[in-house]
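#onboarding

Welcome to the new folks! Below is a worked example of what a typical request in this channel looks like: someone posts a single protein sequence, and someone else replies with the predicted structure as tokens. Don't worry about understanding the tokens yet, we'll cover that in week two.

Example request:
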Amino acid sequence: MTKVEHYIQTLGNSADLLTKRQTSIYFEKLSNTFPFLTIMQINWRKVLIKKSTRHIEEIKKWLQEMNIKEHQVVLFWKRATKAVSVDLAQALLFFQQTADLTEEAFIYCPSVDYVIEYFKDGKMMIGLAAR
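Example response:
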């Protein structure tokens, strides 16, 4: 079992595994919405509305402050070809519980165009696409 398969299993029934095609479509939308560096990392200097944190509660508070109520997200691991559709609360709980084991990842909400980039050191960046 690969790490990503283990992560998906850990998320349980709350996560819907996306096909490679669906994953590709969502990742293309993400990469067309946010500026990327060549190292599979968002160029946060070019994102105007953003926050850096290490605390999940701050992510939740920021979303409330931005009046964002949509929480169905796509979770991508940076080194994987598969992604899952999952509720944001489940994705954040997953990172909170497995922080020492988790690969770097993106949590992307395609309907609102916000993204959370999770780094191996536990740092998170959240940003909203310019409209």
